[in-house]
Amino acid sequence: MNNTKRGHISLALIYLTVSLILLSILYFLIKDETLQLIIILLSFVILIVGLFIYFFSTTSLKRKIRKQISKIMFNLDAFSLDTLKESYLEIYRSYMKLSEKNKQNFYTSVNKLRQEIEEKLKAKKKLELLLDQSSIGNIEEQKKTLGNIHQLYQQLPHSDQEQYTAQIQHIQEKLEKSLNSN
Questions:
Q1: Residue 118 per-residue DSSP state
Q2: Cβ neighbours of residue 99 under 8 Å, at least 6 residues apart?
């Protein structure tokens, strides 16, 4: 939908430019001073509208990106990893539509957001691997694995933590039973 909106804005700017060119040609062809004055006023109105459309289209995209980044970075743990990935892709698509000058202004923020999400994705993947390997090794190795699982668990967003809580508790209870039986 955003591409369609940008396309309509570009099309509107093209129509406005063509209108200004036609009015300029008409101005020189018409000798009546009253009509020339009307053409000048109409050209001025079209120019103002064109500048407004251009200003609105560029500032609204920057404002949208800034708002999205701050919303996600402020509540990084409140969103699931899937939501974070989708939001990042939306931000990145908007970022790619910016001019090179404006991209420089947002590069650090977009890159930091990407790194934060990557860290959480890596933690999730490593957590899943450790959960699969939690019963491998002797009791000391299992305790060490459980400690690593708890560290990785803390790095996940709250909504993703819920997914692993029961499994971690089960591993912890199983390890405690093994310790008590020895």
A1: H
A2: 58
Task: Kindly report the pTM of this predicted structure.
Answer: 0.65
Structure tokens belonging to residue 168: 């971690």
Distances (CA, A) of 58 to 69, 84, 87, 95, 175: 17, 25, 20, 12, 58
Q: Which two tokens stand for residue 56?
A: 């609105």
| Helix 33-74 with 81-96: angle, nearest 10 deg | 150
Q: Tens digits of per-residue pLDDT, 45-69?
A: 888 887 787 777 667 788 889 989 9
The candidate with the shortest Cα–Cα distance to 144, out of 153, 154, 134, 152, is 134
Cβ neighbours around 111 below 10 Å, total: 10
Query: Each residue of 91-117: pLDDT tens digit?
Result: 999 999 888 888 998 999 999 999 999
In this structure, what DSSP letter does residue 80 have? -
Q: Give the pair of three-digit tokens for residue 9.
A: 């804005």
Highest mean pLDDT among 40-44, 110-114, 164-168: 110-114
DSSP assignment of 29-98, as one string? Answer: H---HHHHHHHHHHHHHHHHHHHHHHHHHHHHHHHHHHHHHHHHHHTTTTS-HHHHHHHHHHHHHHHHTS
> Comparing C-alpha atoms, which of 111, 123, 118, 113 is closest to residue 76?
113
Any idea of the CA torsion for 84, 86, 91, 93, to the nearest 10 degrees?
150
Specify the 3-state DSSP secondary structure of 2: helix
